[in-house]
Design a protein that fits this description.
Number of domains: 1
Strand content: over 45%
Radius of gyration: 12 Å
Strand order of the largest sheet: 1-2-3-4
Distance between the termini: 21 Å
Largest sheet: 4 strands, antiparallel
Order of helices and strands: EEEEEEE
Number of helices: 0
Helix content: under 10%
Number of strands: 7
Structural class: mainly beta
Length: 90
């Protein structure tokens, strides 16, 4: 979990794979954030998130390779209940 801007980000793992979630209301409600790649949750994979100011850093290891992306937090906006799609993952 990471505090980013005025919100919270969390990474989860389940049978369907790893997922990224955003809350703009201190955790009362959450909406999924589209990640740049799908990462299965096989026990040999990992996803982590960190934030600095208004930037989000996402790191993923799919068991074959590790990758990292960043995006501005402004890309996480959107209507509650909708899937957030950051405008760019760099």
């Amino acid at each position: 979990m990471a505090a980013v801007g005025s919100g919270l980000l969390a990474v989860t793992g389940a049978g369907a794979g790893h997922a990224l979630w955003y809350s703009g209301d201190l955790g009362d409600s959450w909406r999924s954030v589209t990640m740049p790649v799908e990462v299965a949750d096989t026990g040999e994979t990992a996803v982590a998130v960190a934030a600095q100011g208004e930037r989000l850093l996402l790191m993923a290891d799919d068991g074959a390779a590790s990758r990292a992306w960043w995006t501005p937090v402004s890309g996480l906006g959107g209507d509650e209940g909708s899937k957030s799609r950051p405008s760019t993952w760099n």
